[in-house]
Design brief:
The protein is α+β, with helices and mostly antiparallel strands.
Length: about 300
């Protein structure tokens, strides 16, 4: 899945993510929108900047943006879609109590009666068991950005979108600053885009580079602050995809069971997954690193490079 890479030594490494998260929160904090909104995601040049959706939903939206193209000016292009999201994923976005309240909303215009083969009226949730119909709107913003909002199918589209338009206009300065920041980050990182970096922070500052055996993938998520940090340096598409799938699977396992540590391995490399003090940390090395050493390697590398201390 395409995403905005974070360079730990770039002065704006966390700024664009924090600003993007702030921009998405503006919609969820708006009274005219929050009652209908499940969540949002922001993209830059068809790459994920910040998302509140799970991996499968985000990947689906990326493909929609890529297939419809993008525009430079806000308002020239919008795309509307209908999807069926799992109840669990919606609960993760808004909570069980609010989801029940949102699903109880009825709008005759947007919620027609459904009749089964026996001529009996059925509930919409029975059409696709375990899933709920939702609406998705993708709006083109300036600077190559795209905003995706998933909202309740019971909402009136025109009323919801008018409220969204007003929020975008009212926060045009934030949107402009975010777009300019993303452009500056991309411009400054072009020279490093395909160069494998060493696992030493000082080496990176001095511009010294090593072979890919010194590279690794890592991702951290703090559930208390919703802050995330991610870096993929293995330059291996299959390994990157495996890393994303491992993060998704391990994150679900951490939520469902009292597990706090996982050590895994497949043909793409070794994985170390750790949960401590409300933070989840995921680390991947390629297959050249002995499986028995992955835990110590993760602790040493992340401590030296990113001040992430694992117990």
């Amino acid at each position: 899945m395409p995403y905005m890479e974070l360079d730990p030594i770039h002065e704006n490494t966390s700024s664009h993510f924090v600003m993007a998260w702030e921009f998405l929160n503006v919609f969820q904090e708006n009274q005219d929108i929050s009652d209908s909104l499940f969540g949002g995601a922001l993209f830059y040049n068809n790459k994920v900047v910040c998302t509140k959706f799970n991996v499968s939903s985000t990947r689906w939206i990326v493909n929609l943006i890529d297939s419809t193209g993008n525009t430079e000016e806000y308002g020239l292009k919008r795309q509307y879609y209908i999807a069926y999201e799992t109840i669990d994923s919606l609960v993760n976005l808004v909570g069980a109590e609010k989801l029940e309240e949102m699903l109880s909303m009825k709008n005759e215009e947007n919620n027609p009666e459904y009749i089964n083969d026996e001529g009996e009226q059925i509930e919409e949730t029975e059409l696709v068991p375990g899933r709920v119909r939702v609406n998705l709107c993708i709006i083109s913003l300036q600077f190559g950005m795209s905003l995706a909002l998933m909202y309740n199918s019971s909402s009136k589209d025109d009323t919801f979108i008018k409220s969204v338009d007003k929020v975008i206009r009212d926060n045009s300065e934030l949107c402009k600053n975010l777009g300019e920041l993303l452009q500056s980050v991309i411009a400054s990182d072009l020279s490093l885009e395909c160069i494998p970096l060493t696992n030493s922070r000082e080496d990176r500052k001095q511009g010294r580079f090593a072979d890919s055996s010194n590279c690794y993938n890592f991702f951290t998520f703090n559930e208390l602050t919703d802050m995330q940090m991610k870096s993929l340096e293995l330059n291996n598409k299959e390994a990157d995809e495996n890393f994303d799938m491992t993060i998704n699977w391990a994150h679900d396992l951490f939520r469902q069971r009292p597990t706090t540590k996982l050590i895994l391995r497949n043909h793409t490399g070794s994985f170390y997954c750790r949960k401590q003090f409300g933070k989840e940390v995921f680390f991947q090395r390629d297959s050249s690193i002995p499986f028995d050493n992955i835990e110590e390697d993760a602790k040493t590398t992340l401590s030296n490079d990113h001040n992430i201390n694992l117990i």
